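Here we describe the complex-level prediction in full. Unlike the single-chain runs in Section 2.1, the two entities below were treated as one system.
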Amino acid sequence: MEKTKKFIVSHAPHISGEERVQTVMLDVIIALFPSVIAGVIFFGYRAALLTAVCMAACIFFEWGWCKLLKKPSTVGDLSAAVTGIILAMNLPATLPFYQAILGSLFAIIIVKAFFGGLGHNFMNPAAAARAFLLTSFAMPMTRWVEPFEKLHLINNADAITSASPLSLYKAGEELTSFWNLFIGNRGGCIGETSAIAIIIGFAYLIWRKVIDYKCPLAYVLTTFVLSACLGGTLYSGVYHVFAGGLLFSAVFMVTDYTTTPYTPWGKVIFGIGCGLITVLIRFFGGYPEGVTYGILLMNVASPLIERYTHPRRFGKVKEAKENA
Amino acid sequence: MENKFFEGAAEKIKGFISDKKEVYTFRGGIHPDAMKEETKDKPIVDIDAPQLMIFPMVQHLGAPATPIVQVGDEVKVGQKIAEASGYVSANIHSSVSGTVKEIKPSLHPNGTEVECIFIENDGRYEVVEGLKGYDYRELSPKEIVDIVREAGIVGMGGACFPTHVKLNVSDDKRIDYVIVNGAECEPYLTSDHRQMLENPKDVITGLKILMKIFGLTTGYIGIEENKPDAIEVLQNAASLDGEADIRIVTLKTKYPQGSEKQLIDAITGRKIPPGKLPADVGAIVDNVDTVASICRAVTKGRPLISRIVTVAGDCIGNPVNFRVRIGTPFNYIVEKAGGFKKEPRKVIMGGPMMGIAQISLDTPVVKGTSGLLAFGRKFARAQEETTCLRCGKCVEICPMRLVPLEINNAYKRNDFDALMKLNVMDCIECGSCSYICQSSQRVVQNIRIAKAKIREKK
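The structure predicted for the assembly as a whole is:
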């Protein structure tokens, strides 16, 4: 008999799904694309440049950290690129570049790498970096410009500013129209303004089964119901869903794998908690926007939520009934 | 890639339209590519046996059988060559006529060395005298179970649990459901599918024999949606049979639909409590091939000496379903299936989700060999394991409602208390968690080791 090589022997299963970490991250990048485009349409090339800077900075810090620790580079899993884009989407288009780079550093090194890298961080890197920037550079982080304003590529210190829809609401002034909120023709961060772009991304991620609908749905519904009640009008509910960073966070941030609960009911509770905190901050807190802190607070609670929402083991229900 | 997406979408739309019919299933599970096209439309081919046949003494769950022949003995087809050595054990019969050459430890398809009887086939296939069939209607339940035990019948879906033990239900338990498992949810395998298409009468008679044991007038056959032809054939056969009420249940195509617990849940809505058996919820499940073997044992007196094996995979020259005499070495089967068209790197006995990777092709077909799959380099390459992202997909799909990722982590830090708290022993080892894992974590593989270690400790 002819000599053949030894067979490969391994435990079952011998097949696996096509999803890998890279493919999932690539899907997220694809889903972010409409938001990036919308950001560029409304805030010009400056928005594109800021996104590129954040992405490059995140990838660089990820690579540098691996190099420093003499570990194989993890840039290939594309998670750093995703963090970079999501962070940029959460920044105003006029933010100075050095601040954006500092934010990237905070996201990748302090929030992610210090805790063991991808899969081990307990807070959403982009949300934490945004919170960090908001406390460190309060003024530039809340300088909103009108859409279609001609922005200088580098320095925009003297650009004409406008109010964000949420600060309009807080100040009791005339609200932005629903149409403008829907397409994104309003002041705000690069990626959060255009609801339609975000919804396209959401549809893509659901279709590719990358994210689960439960958490975003719970988040949006909670926010809608609570702000409709607190604001007293239905439009108040709709307004709070579409204004600010809520939709963007609902699709791209509360669906982060590592920092949100993995149990089905945990996802629902997480979404409700985020919505609750967001609305409380928006209505009663000092800031006009509460999405970032809502997510961060719930991130911290997520191991606890996981522990109490483990699914009931198969066959357990029956037993309980029989005993009763 | 693109094409696949569109096909998937088209299938879903079709699914919505044809949803009028009731389809039963369980909660969780995965949708691996069925890969059954190659063999599902090819009739079963009978093949003869090679010169040397190997009969391992372990072809069932429980104690190994004890040889009752000696080297030099003449044996005939259907002659008992080894006897059950305990209650949970099974007889083994020769599938050829010839001479006992050797009795020595040899490689078993499960990777261990077990005692095997080697028989030289004289090619005459003389059948042993005294094999006698009965009219099952005139037999008592005990007599039927005795025939099943004598015939050495075990669960042929792969688990190989001795069927007579399963059928011997204590008097305090009432059986309401007898279910034939025709789900065949493992990719590539079509042996049960072909059996149902070609021998619907055997399957139905076998089911009626089981119903007779438990005094039932209704029986169930569960078949996945992706086998509409089998559903139709059995439906016709069942309606032609005026004696019994046999219901064909359409199951959703989903892995692991053919798992005993999930199948009972889908058909009856009853969930087997942790650590209990199907009989505890009043159900008995037997695989298609097992039921057909019961039929042959009772009505024709034939012991379990052959079975249907799917031979497939990208390396097999001519993928096919064979009716194989148990004891036939794998290399002979491969040869009969047109040999290898390219160099195989991985050979699997059973399906790709739960089958056992083979070290060599010298091992024989045993009672639980539902398939023999051979794959090339691309298939055999293992994905590199990366960090768990805690995405929770394994939690979502676990048919036993466990938390595989936490079990995996607990195993890695050797925390046996945590493993017990996470109910690791409930795991049915279906492998859905490993399949779905985007980080290629070896979840079920680790669970298997953890379970073995826990059993050892006890």
